[in-house]
Amino acid sequence: MDEVPAKKKYNVINEMSLRGYPIQLLCSIAGVSKSGYYKWVKRHLSSSQKQIENQVIKKKILECHKKVKGIYGYRRILVWLRLTYNLFIKHKRVQRLMSELGIQAVIRKKRPYYGKKEAYVVSDNHLNRDFQASKPNEEWVTDITYLIFNGQKL
User: Fold this and answer.
1) Helix axis angle, 74-85 relative to 49-67, nearest 10°?
2) Contact 74, 91 (CB under 8 A)
3) Tens-digit pLDDT profile for the chain (154 aa)?
4) Which of 61, 91, 93, 153 is deepest in the core (most CB within 10 A)?
């Protein structure tokens, strides 16, 4: 049998206590301590300074994400936060907040390069298959063939 997480139990206790049931009875039925419930209530209802700061940073991250149309990842968003708001935080925090917001960078496809390419040079056939030389070093021949295969010269 699966164990129910304490957070769910505390949520149920909170809902039932609003309907008038005593908290001590609800805690004993759920199998949690009364002090644990009150600690959860204190933590759940009042936000800490860190949580408030994270909410402000999340708004700024969303602003950046919308401004650049979602192409920035956490590293570039971190740089943007530093340049725009002079906000110095760690990259892992930005990454965690972005994952909580459910946003990530859009990976763009690489476009093919249609720029200027090397021109093909076809030399004239001066020998015309006449390989007979009258003296040494009169005719020198070489053959260099470049084959393009899968976008690479072979």
Assistant:
1) 100
2) yes
3) 457 788 888 988 989 888 989 989 999 999 999 999 999 888 877 778 898 999 999 999 999 999 999 999 999 999 999 999 999 999 999 999 999 999 999 988 888 888 777 777 777 887 787 778 888 888 877 777 777 778 777 6
4) 61
3 state SS of 18: helix
Distance between CA 44 and CA 23 in Å, rounded?
17
Beta strands in the chain (DSSP E): 148-149, 152-153
Here the tokens at position 10 are: 């505390």
Tokens representing residue 89 in the block: 């935080």
Which residues on neighbouring strands pair with residue 148, listed in sequence order? 153
Distances in whole angstroms, Cα of residue 24 to Cα of each of 42, 54, 117: 17, 34, 80
pTM of the model as a whole: 0.53
Please state the φ and ψ torsions of residue 104, each to the nearest 5 degrees: -155, 170
In degrees, rounded to 5, the angle at the alpha carbon of residue 42 between the alpha carbons of residues 39 and 44 is 105
| Backbone dihedral region for residue 69 (phi beyond 0: left; psi -120 to 50: alpha; all else: beta) | left
Instruction: List the beta bridge partners of residue 152.
Output: 149
